[in-house]
Amino acid sequence: MLKLHNFDRSPFGWKARIVLAEKKVPHEVIVPENKSESAAFAKLNPFRLTPVLELEDGRTIYESTVVNEYLEEAYPTPAMLPKDPYERARVRMLEDTTDQYLMQTLRDFRGAQYEYAPPFLIPKKADQVDHKLLEESKKKVHEHLARLEKELTGRTWFGGETFSLADAALVAPLTGSLPLMGVLPDPKYPNLAAWSRRVAERPSVIASAPKEPMRIKKD
């Protein structure tokens, strides 16, 4: 049986869990212990990051995008990439830019105003908030959201009629982090709101969701 080494609240782990659930691939979920120091984990991924997909013969695949591309190739039904070559590339661009740019912007936006003490976000005191970074990252967040809103025009999913690898990658930021931090829902983004409602009802998303989501600690 496949083994997925990942953490419950990791957006990248959730992304891989969605694809495994969508394709109904039997697997075991393993939460790493002391991955920064564990020699055993370093053998799974020399960069000591999750998620890691361990195959039945012990070989491993890491980096969430590569993990999900492997799953798409090894378990092609249901397809999570469109058939048309351009549409496949468009989905891959959405998935890749989510990891490279949107997630970094969200880290800046969060770090400017919260301390992270899992599973809590703890609001910083007013004199500790990085207002410059907060405003810059907030502006970038909305630039990303405007782009994603446009991508959904006339489409059910980011993959068109296909619930795609891009949709799996966007579940965590669009239904987790951004609503938690009060950015979504926003009336400027009706397509994203409708997409989020559809996602919330999808069995693969429900089954793979974090058991203990991140939350804001109140005084």
What's this model, at a glance?
The chain has 219 residues and is an alpha/beta fold. It has helices at residues 11-22, 39-44, 64-74, 85-113, 131-151, 165-180, 190-200, 203-208; strands spanning 2-5, 27-30, 52-54, 60-62, 114-117, 120-123, 215-216.
Notes on the protein architecture:
The protein contains eight helices and seven strands. With 219 residues, the protein is of the alpha/beta class. The protein has two domains: 2-74, Glutaredoxin (3-Layer(aba) Sandwich), CATH 3.40.30; 85-216, Glutathione S-transferase Yfyf (Class Pi), Chain A, domain 2. A four-stranded mixed sheet has the order 2-1-3-4, with helices on one face. A three-stranded mixed sheet has the order 5-6-7. A hairpin with a 2-residue loop joins strand 5 (114-117) and strand 6 (120-123). Helix 4 packs antiparallel against helix 5 (131-151). The chain is globular. The mean pLDDT is 97.
Q: Which features characterize this protein?
A:
219 residues; Glutaredoxin; Glutathione S-transferase Yfyf (Class Pi), Chain A, domain 2; 2 domains; four-stranded mixed β-sheet; 8 helices
